[in-house]
Amino acid sequence: MDLLVWTIARGDNVARVCEDGTVSGDEALVAELRARLAQSITVYTRGTVAAGAGATAIELAPDDRRYVVARIRTLCAEDPAFQIVDCDWR
Questions:
Q1: What mean pLDDT comes out for the span 38-63?
Q2: Which of 15, 47, 48, 53 is the most buried if burial means most Cβ atoms within 10 Å?
Q3: Do 65 and 58 meet the contact criterion of CB atoms below 8 Å apart?
Q4: Quick check: helix, strand or coil at residue 68?
Q5: Are residues 6 and 86 in contact, defined by beta-carbon separation less than 8 angstroms?
Q6: What gap in Å lies between CA 4 and CA 10, rounded to an integer?
Q7: What dihedral do alpha carbons 8, 62, 55, 7 form, nearest 10°?
Q8: How far apart are CA 3 and CA 34, in angstroms?
Q9: Does the pLDDT value for residue 28 go beyond 80?
Q10: What distance in Å separates the CA atoms of residue 43 and residue 22, rounded to the nearest whole number?
Q11: Which pTM does this prediction carry?
């Protein structure tokens, strides 16, 4: 089965986050991403990172299969220092 992999940059540091939750790359950025991937998040049924009209809030935790995708989407919304520079299948 192919897994989606995001390449995340913060400044000159680059790391890869796999859909299954594995993280590799620059040591400092990997540590930061692992810490963020351990936090529960709130997403919305409309608008994902911000509540749209009629949106319902959904709390996701790291053990939810939808979590990594939602966490990556919220990462850049919460901190513009993070950039998704690539997304590919592995």
A1: 81
A2: 15
A3: no
A4: helix
A5: yes
A6: 20
A7: 10
A8: 18
A9: yes
A10: 21
A11: 0.83
